[in-house]
Amino acid sequence: MRSRRRVTLESVAAHAKVSRQTVSNAINAPDVVKPETLTRVLESIAELGYQPSRAARQLRTRRSQILGYALGPGTYSVYGTIGDRFVHALAQAAQERGYRIMLFAASSDDEEIVQFDELLSGADLDGFVLTNTHQADPRTTWLTERDVPFVTFGRPWDADHGTHPWVDVDGAAGTAAATRHLHGLGHTRIAYLGWPHGSGVGDDRRTGWSSTMTELGLSADERWQETTDNATEHAEVAAARLLRRVAPSAVVCVSDTVGLGVVQAAESQGRRVAVTGFDDSAVSYVAGMTTIAQPIAESARRALALVLRQIGVESGGSAARHELLPPTLVVRGTSIRPDPLSGTVGS
Amino acid sequence: MRSRRRVTLESVAAHAKVSRQTVSNAINAPDVVKPETLTRVLESIAELGYQPSRAARQLRTRRSQILGYALGPGTYSVYGTIGDRFVHALAQAAQERGYRIMLFAASSDDEEIVQFDELLSGADLDGFVLTNTHQADPRTTWLTERDVPFVTFGRPWDADHGTHPWVDVDGAAGTAAATRHLHGLGHTRIAYLGWPHGSGVGDDRRTGWSSTMTELGLSADERWQETTDNATEHAEVAAARLLRRVAPSAVVCVSDTVGLGVVQAAESQGRRVAVTGFDDSAVSYVAGMTTIAQPIAESARRALALVLRQIGVESGGSAARHELLPPTLVVRGTSIRPDPLSGTVGS
After folding, report:
1. Which of A49, A27, A48, A51 is nearest to A38 (CA)?
2. pLDDT by residue for chain B (347 residues), tens digit each?
3. How far apart are CA A151 and CA A131, in angstroms?
4. Cβ-based neighbours of A9, under 8 Å, separated by 6 or more
5. Residue B346 region, left (φ>0) first, then alpha (ψ -120 to 50), else beta?
6. Which of A31, A54, A92 sits opposite B124 (nearest CB)?
7. What whole-number distance in Å separates Cα of residue B255 and Cα of residue B204?
8. Burial tier of A59 (Cβ tally within 10 Å: 0-12, 13-18, 19+)
9. What CATH code is carried by the domain that includes residue B275?
10. Domain enclosing residue B17, as ranges
11. B25 and B84, same structural domain?
12. Continuous segment of H or E residues that includes residue A87
């Protein structure tokens, strides 16, 4: 039943004919071991190729090969979030480089900073991977001031915090692709349902729609926009207003859950409306909704490379400190052509 | 900007008027520090209440306060899985007890065992939390033989592996509750769509339906059952067969994605069929499907308590080594009453 291929403390002890504790002392407190015993243990360690424990190694190298990652409360939702998918990909990518991910829980920036502090003074992490970046993010300021290696999955979103390494997905390119896709199906009355102004991610996605509409010579003025938080029931109310006001034949949405609100509002009003969401979540899959997929595995690999370069473990690869990756359009059943009657109903 | 409340190596160094390296030596290699300097540093450490690093502490206590948790490839799906929700709850519960969760990736039992071995010889974990248990699970045998503390979220499912600590959710109680709920709505033609025989979780959920049907004096013979894997498109094909064969007015399903297949098959055949799923996932939420919710946060708390008791950190609480928690019925739109015409169509 012994499938261990690694040499253990026990096998070194057996080889050197000493106790397990003596091997441990030879590694961690050599001064308490008799010189001749120490020599024998060190020879056994060399001969068997024993790797001392992470703790002992880390005191020597000052590297723990552990990165910290915060799980926020937002991810407790019944939906599989982008964050969940990211941490899977990150754990896989890290393991391939001999690194591990240590999870911690934080429900606010301040809590996360308290945890940074605790982890740095107690757990000897090599660095952090952050998500959910936003304007004036105190977390990145805190880490930068203390010269702690980190990378964010998400842009800083404000000019004066833009110097740390980050990886992000180009949200504006996603909503631009959705808008062009709908226009290609024949739509010209394309509205936008997004999050309230002021969130980096939300404003970026809105820009992809509005700039593409302008390029196409179509209206992107305020009448064609509504805002809502991410709850489907609130999105449905906002969508109902938008559908009545401008009778769009298509709505580009900031997320899949918001998109579901548009699908439901259109159904209630007996309208045929094309809808695109964002995230390629279970919601879009079940609702048969066209959406934008983020390259999560690639984002995790690039984020890992950036933080390892900061730590000093990696030197190769691109010299870029910021990487903006393109998302992909996923076409499903809500990519319908415009109804010839649309634009006449309710306006 | 200094929001640190913890004492650092630097502040000890400043207080004792020595270098950072000297403080580090005083903790990790006291024999290389001059006795009078060592005394001064140790006094500063005591006066300031400095906590030496986790690595140094762990060499002293032989405890890392870290638990390992494998992320499997199954969780890469677009759905938020039970595993994702469990690890969030586990990280939160662990943190409240001063423990952290270290993630590793494994796509098979053998890979997971290789990682156990590597983590135990390299990273000084205190124990593991395992998911996705199954019959003849080589992982629990491996850990048990090596006396490594661990707990599983999921039963062993075979008699001779049943001695290690585990927490699980009573799946049979869930499908029994779903069956009684449908019967209470007036259904008597209640079929079951499950996974192929031989999976512990799947067989357990089937039993809840079949034993309840028998109690109610209703047929649970093979004509009333079909099996499918968890893919909605395969479930739809199996459901179509089941609907044609016995024209059930309701179908109890082993999972939400399987339940969605029944919803789609019923729609294709123009039938009104009540459906219950299992897991309270995004799929059931979006599809408006009645389902069974697992007590994930409570499961994580109990699993943590069991593994901490094994490690020797906790002694209080229940003495039980095995905890089977009841799930909850979540009633949604697919809880429809039987159509008076059902049972006559297609039979």
Report:
1. A27
2. 333 345 777 788 889 999 877 887 777 666 678 878 888 888 888 788 776 655 555 545 567 889 999 987 654 344 457 788 898 899 999 999 889 999 998 888 999 999 998 888 776 789 999 998 888 889 999 999 888 999 999 999 876 656 899 999 999 999 999 999 999 999 999 999 999 998 899 999 999 999 999 999 999 999 999 999 988 889 999 999 999 999 999 999 999 999 999 999 999 999 999 999 999 988 888 889 999 999 999 999 999 999 999 998 776 655 678 999 999 999 999 999 998 765 544 43
3. 9
4. A20, A23, A24, A50, A53, B121
5. left
6. A54
7. 13
8. buried
9. 3.40.50.2300
10. 9-52
11. no
12. helix A82-96
- Lowest mean pLDDT across A51-55, A239-243, A311-315: A51-55
Query: Does A79 reside within a domain?
Result: yes
Q: Which long-range contacts (CB under 8 A, 24 or more apart) does A140-146 make?
A: A140/A164, A141/B1, A142/A113, A142/A116, A142/B1, A142/B3, A143/A116, A145/B1, A146/A120
B139 in the same domain as B70? yes
What are the angstrom distances between the C-alpha of B207 and each of B90, B155, B187, B254, B337? 29, 15, 19, 11, 24
Return the structure tokens found at A80: 């599989």
Residue A46 belongs to domain with CATH number: 1.10.260.40
Chain B, 142 to 181: residues with Cβ < 8 Å from chain A are 142, 145
A330 in reach of chain B (CB within 8 A): no
CA dist B235 and B237 (Å) reads 5
Residues within 8 A of A (CB atoms), B 200-229 only: none
Instruction: Count other Cβ atoms within 10 Å, centred on residue B6.
Output: 15
**CA–CA gap between residue B108 and residue B110 (Å, rounded):** 5
Q: Are residues B123 and B205 in the same domain?
A: no
Is B342 domain-assigned? no
The pLDDT value given to residue B289? 96
The answer to whether the beta carbons of residues B106 and B136 sit under 8 Å apart is no
Letter for the amino acid at A268?
Answer: S
What HEC string does A116-164 produce? Answer: HHHHHHHCCCCEEEECCCCCCCHHHHHHHHCCCCEEEECCCCCHHHCCC
Q: What total number of domains does chain A contain?
A: 3
Torsion of CA A150, A155, A159, A164, to 10 degrees: 20
Residue B188 belongs to a domain: yes
Question: Looking at chain B from residue 222 to 261, which residues have their Cβ under 8 Å from any Cβ of chain A?
Answer: 260
